[in-house]
Amino acid sequence: MKARPGRRVVEARAVRFGNLRDAGPLDVLITGAGISGAAIYQELARSGYRVGIVDRGDFASGTSQASGMLIWGGLLYLRNLDFATVVALCRSRQRLLEKNPEDASVVDLHFSTGHLGVFGKAFMWSALQLYWGLGGCHLAKPRFCDGEAGPSLVYQEGMLRESDSRFVLGRIAGRTSADCVSVNHCELVSASRDAAAACWRVGLKDRITGDEHVIRAKVLVNAAGVWADDVDRIAGLVSPCKHVFSKGVYLMFPRNGERAARVHPMVGRQDVLTHVPWGPVMMWGPTETPIRDLEEGFAPSRDDVEFLLAQARSSLRGRVGKEDVVSMRSGVRPLAVPRNFEKEVYPLDLSRKHRVVVHAGQHAVSVFGGKFTSGSAAAGQVASAVGRWVEPRHAATEWVGREVGIPRNEGGCGDGFVTPEHARDSEFCATLEDYLRRRTQIAQWTPRMGLGRAGENRSQLLEMAAAFADDEAGAIKMTDEYEETVRRIHDSVLEAGG
Ligand SMILES: Cc1cc2nc3c(=O)[nH]c(=O)nc-3n(C[C@H](O)[C@H](O)[C@H](O)COP(=O)(O)OP(=O)(O)OC[C@H]3O[C@@H](n4cnc5c(N)ncnc54)[C@H](O)[C@@H]3O)c2cc1C
Question: For ligand 1, is residue 57 a contact (CB within 6 Å)?
Answer without folding.
Answer: yes
